[in-house]
Amino acid sequence: MRHMRSASKGFTAVVLALGTGFGLGLAGPAQAAAGNGAGSIVGTTDGAVRGTVDGDGVRSFQGIPYAAPPVGGLRWSPPRPAAPWTGVREATAPGSPCAQPKGLPIGIPSEAEDCLYLNVTTPAQRAGKRPVIVWIHGGSLMFGSGDLYGPKRLAAEGAVVVSVNYRLGVMGFLADPALRTSGGLGLEDQQAALRWVRANAGAFGGDPANVTVMGESGGGYSVCGHLASPKSAGLFDRAIVQSAPCATGGSRTREAAEAEAEATVKNLRTMGACTEDEHAESCLRGADAATLMEAYGTWKEPRPVAGTDLLPLAPAEALRTGRFNRVPVLIGVNHDEERGMILGQELAAGPMAAEAYEPAIREEFGSRADAVLARYPLSRFGSAGEALATVRTDHAWSVPTMDTAKLLSRWTPTRMFEFSERDTPWWAGSKAPSFQPRAQHMAELPYLFDFRIPLFEEMTEKQRALGKRMTGTWVNFAESGKTDWPAFRGRGYVQSLTSGPWKRTEFLRDHDYTFWKDLG
After folding, report:
1. Positive or negative, the Cα torsion across 61, 154, 151, 38?
2. Cα–Cα–Cα angle for 131, 135, 140, nearest 5°?
3. Antiparallel, parallel or unpaired: β 238-242 and 206-216
4. Do the Cβ atoms of 142 and 108 come closer than 8 Å?
5. In sequence order, what are the residues at sequence separation of 6 or more whose Cβ sits closer than 8 angstroms to the Cβ of residue 321?
């Protein structure tokens, strides 16, 4: 998808400006400190785990295995059950991030294949069965890990929050015919985690019969996949989709996936990792993680393959025909998604020149460019970058998110929001942008999570107040499947989330919906 390509380019620029790695020193479970007699012990189906209790009124359990390590002969195999253990396992440090190259600032370079771990954050006070939120991190299905998103504020509102590591990129979505995989092992990992949650949520104070799967960007597209996958049926009861229009993404064709795999094997041979006459499977299995990632590439857009037992229909077709897992859905998009991508490029290359705007539109829209330029003339905007960001936001994010909500609402209760706050935290340590980032891609995340890396500037009191209202809304939806604004159906209601009064937004008008639908 074009808007995901621009996301990659923008975040590349952010990385160049901010650097990568962030020096977190994350440790795998084997490195977790022993002892912690003051911790909290919980029994799971595989054995007991000891977490920590902090002063914020939450209990935290990190680095719990939900599947066997997919290493050796299990590389590119569906997730297998984790081995049980005796005694008490220390759950005080997160598992290793799944193998990923240097790239987005939300990612941590890693060569780890032993990475199928999850984290549980739950209120310290036991008070009946609480709603469970399973967080699937974003990062284009190439980067990231669950523990980077601290969910204490969601837990403080009364939810049990589970964050998950899952196989990414070449390890999670390679679809070479020689490997005989679904082409969506990352999605299968998430399904294994959801089965673990059904079996173990009760031990942590959660309601195993009330599970919400929630994701943003690449994680949001994963939620689209779970809505469409028959193998996810019965594993969750509600869904939250942020910045991931299912109507235009969430899967790819077998042909596209196999072409990518063929190119990866060709690159391995060019690199000397295997001989020209060596079988593709032997070539792939004989390479280490670092070599595989180099051959696969960094700025890819992996997606599960449609037309398989895992994903019989692409998410858009599943929603169009009603053949999906019908649960209440909260779906939303940020008002200014592409500002972050354009400003990220600006950090590395400087502001976009005014004379570059028209060529960019013509390259992107071809024969339709005249109509786009007439509708979005440069004179309407303060800069070329702001103009291009508006075009891309409306075309690639806002319109398809509205289309997704329309498809969903035909079959299942649907609520839609637009995060529209104008005064949002900017990237920490970055020079001031040439135009306001506003509700850029990822801008809503610091209102819901506390990052373990210095990704955004410190929030103001006003911003924290909005965050508290949003976390309360998210947890209320997880508990009830409802929000305090009307359902989408009929009137196409979209709620604007800002630090001011929350109210209905004129979404169709604000994003030139009719123009784009007429344009085709």
Report:
1. negative
2. 160
3. parallel
4. no
5. 313
338 classed as catalytic: no
3-state DSSP assignment of residue 476: helix
Q: How confident is the model over 203-219, as a mean pLDDT?
A: 97
**Residue 158: band (very low, low, confident or very high) from pLDDT cuts 50, 70, 90:** very high
Tell me how far apart the alpha carbons of residues 101 and 139 are, in angstroms, rounded to a whole number.
12
Q: Model confidence at 39, in pLDDT bands (50, 70, 90)?
A: low
Give which of 103, 30, 52, 82 is closest to 192, Cα–Cα: 82
Helices (H), 367-444: 369-375, 384-393, 399-409
Q: How far apart are CA 344 and CA 108, in angstroms?
A: 18
- Which pLDDT value is given to residue 254? 95
- Taking 3-state DSSP, the helix, strand and coil percentages for the chain, each rounded to the nearest 5, stand at 40, 15, 45
Contact 64, 49 (CB under 8 A): yes
On the CB side of 205, CA atoms within 13 Å amount to 21
> How high does pLDDT run on average in the chain?
91
- What pLDDT does residue 231 have? 98
Query: What residue type is 385 in one-letter code?
Result: G
Q: Which of 140, 182, 217, 496 is catalytic?
A: 217
Active-site pick, 90, 188, 301, 337: 337
DSSP 285-340: HHS-HHHHHHHH-SS----PBSSSSS-SS-HHHHHHHT-S----EEEEEETTTTHH
Q: Supply the DSSP symbol for 274.
A: S
DSSP-assigned letters across all residues of 190-245: HHHHHHHHHHHGGGGTEEEEEEEEEEETHHHHHHHHHHH-GGGTTS-SEEEEES--
Q: DSSP letter for 31, please.
A: G
Task: Let me know if 395 is a catalytic residue.
Answer: no
- Inter-helix orientation angle 254-270/289-296, to 10°: 120
Burial grade of 44 (CB within 10 A; 0-12, 13-18, 19 or more): buried
Judge whether 343 and 435 are in contact, CB under 8 Å.
yes
Which uninterrupted H or E stretch holds 359? helix 357-365
The Cα 292–Cα 283 span in angstroms is 10
From 169-178, 214-223, 376-385, 446-455, the region with the lowest mean pLDDT = 446-455
- The amino acid occupying position 263 is A
User: Out of 137, 226, 395, 441, which one is annotated catalytic?
Assistant: 441
Neighbour count for residue 509 (Cβ, 10 Å): 9
Instruction: Check if 137 is active-site.
Output: no
Span 277-291, average pLDDT:
96
459 DSSP assignment: P
Among 196, 195, 137, residue whose Cα is nearest residue 167: 137
Length of the chain: 520
Residue 386's DSSP bridge partners are none
| Beta bridge partner(s), residue 160 | 132
How far apart are the C-alpha atoms of 475 and 160, rounded to whole Å?
10
Sign of CA pseudo-dihedral 437, 454, 341, 408: negative
